[in-house]
Specification:
Elements (H helix, E strand, L loop, with lengths): L12 E5 L10 H11 L3 E4 L16 H11 L4 E7 L6 H15 L3 E5 L6 H4 L11 H20 L2 E5 L4 E6 L12 E4 L3 H10 L2 E4 L11 H21 L8 E5 L13 H13 L4 E5 L11 H15 L1
Parallel strand pairs: 1-2, 1-10, 2-3, 3-4, 4-7, 7-8, 8-9, 9-10
Antiparallel strand pairs: 5-6
Helix pairs in contact: 2-3, 3-5, 5-6, 6-7, 8-9
Amino acid sequence: MSDQPRQSTSALRLSTVILPYRRWHEGSRAAWQRAEELGFHTAYTYDHLSWRAFRDGPWFGAVPTLTAAASVTERMRLGTLVTSPNFRHPVTLAKDLISLDDISGGRITLGIGAGGDGFDASTLLKADEEPWTPRERADHFAEFVPLLDKLLSEDAVTHEGAFYSAQEARNIPGCVQRPRLPFAVAATGPRGLKLAARHGQAWVTTGDPKLFATGTPEESIQAIRGQAGKLAAACAEIGRDAAEIDKILLTGFTPDRNRPLESLDAFVDFAGRHAAAGITEIVIHWPIPDSEFAADQKVFESIATEALVQLG
């Protein structure tokens, strides 16, 4: 797989995700700039039409947000966690991503997943239409990812598939990053893990959702180990070294919930245990007052600047 874009997996990295719920000039711009100052490896944002408890409040688009973020940062990588086929088409998405990669100087990572059954899944439907079933989402995802890979890697693409078409879609000059910008594929099921093995430069997990309410932190870590083992098996099937693939944990959805952000020591313990389980990048939510992502900003910033030093 020598033609795959590569990212170093030599040490644990710390990243953040900044939800697009504030106006750019009322706190959002400052957060992206501060994230770079704090030394985060990547700052991601959610790519949704709206999301959970934020549905009835401000919520901005991921692509314009990342474009703006690229214009006020210089070194930090930027990306989505995650984009899905729920309301995206690979042809138009590819054009946006190539533009983003150019504007950012080659700093974009695409987090991509099959999507869920929330607002993204129903907003574009007619009144008599039903959202895709989990199997249908997986079917769309299985066609979406390889087509997007081609669109970002080749100057012209024609495709006639079960769900998507492209007629001589032109994507010149292509990505700044070659052969294309990296994919971080969110997956836990066998079909998604095979896509991550074949097309991903990173794999994203939030842990096992079945453990969120009643599981223990140790059970969660064991589940993540099991997921990583299945990814390794999927890589072995196609002759790829699983060590080439970064393993990203998006926090906040394991039984630990937001407790790792309560103190520097709590986070160092959490991060160390997950690094030992094979995680190479941990993503923490930028604090949002009065939400499930509430956290003390000073503690959050001390984690950003000191945690990796303590972990060695």
